[in-house]
Amino acid sequence: MKEYITKIKTDFDSDLVNIKTTQDIVDIKAKYIGKNGCITDLTKGMKDINPEERKKLGMLSNEIRKYVTEEISKKEEEINNAILNEKLSKEAIDITLPGTQVNNGAPSILEKVIEDFEEVFMSMGYDVVDGPELEEDRFNFELLGLPKGHPARDAQDTFYVKGDELLLRSHTSPVQARVMLSKQGKEPVRIICPGKAYRRDDDDATHSHQFTQIEGLIVDKDIKLSDLKGTVTVICKKLFGPDTVTRFRPSYYQFTEPSVEMDISCFNCKGEGCNICKNTGWITIGGAGVVHYDVLKGCGYNPEKWSGFAFGFGAERCAMLKYGISDIRTFYNVDLRESQTFDRKEEN
Ligand code: DAH
Q1: What are the pocket residues of ligand 1 if the criterion is a CB atom closer than 6 Å to any ligand atom?
Q2: Distance between Cα 312 and ligand 1 center (Å)
Q3: Residues 255-288: pLDDT tens digits?
Q4: pTM value?
């Protein structure tokens, strides 16, 4: 029996040298220490041997089992390490390769300008409200003094969506009618509404079929044109710098009477004349006026008691002037260089 155990050890040692894979490990375990392995078999026949012999044999078979188990687990560890190392070397990262460049994001210039407007108006007690971009003809035109067939409608080349009742709003002024109607002629109104508007314009450096306006409306007792002038002047000084001078030129809109065009002194040349202001010294930033008698009436306010002023700033125009952008399409073609330039300007 002793010789047999010695033979098992010799066989095992020579088998172990050839173990290369995890499957070899499984096989060698089965051959020697598995349920039907030759070392396991040793103990099976022991009950027929005399106690003295059995004890000796027991010790020997324990020894060989211990030896075989330890050797196999050493080998197993060796193989697993080799597999891991191979995997690691295949997956090694070449740190000399150039990385993918990730550009920093930056706030949109247009959003920033809108936020500036909101902040200044809110500090003066205005609420910021929203209105639908898909609008009814009634709000976009009729309640603003532009009945069907009115020639001035043609000036706002409108995108009609369904028949002649539903359209993409051609300006943000319909929000005025919506807000007034919601208050049922009872409360004062003081709102601004920044939002998108749409016209069937051909896109070029100064026109876009989609653009942004900042609409404003105030309705209260004794509101006059001079209140509009004062408010706009304060706002423009805050937004464009304390030296900014405002100018109001007579104009015509169906929903205001009188109506004005709002200009500010050119912040580039301070009124001397340059290419930004086309040598006039002035830059137009929007339209405004005293809310028309019929508009107040049509929107549920008694024009004998209430009065108001309204205005609409061109947001892209203000942003272009403030940040020296020469093409309105910059706002709609995502180009990080533009907003990053803006970021740097803000820092300075
Ligand atoms: N809605 C006008 C436009 O798009 C701008 C405007 C002018 C708005 C006068 C007003 C206003 O609120 O009072 O051309």
Answers
A1: 171, 173, 215, 253, 256, 287-289, 310-312
A2: 5
A3: 999 999 999 998 778 888 888 788 999 999 999 9
A4: 0.71
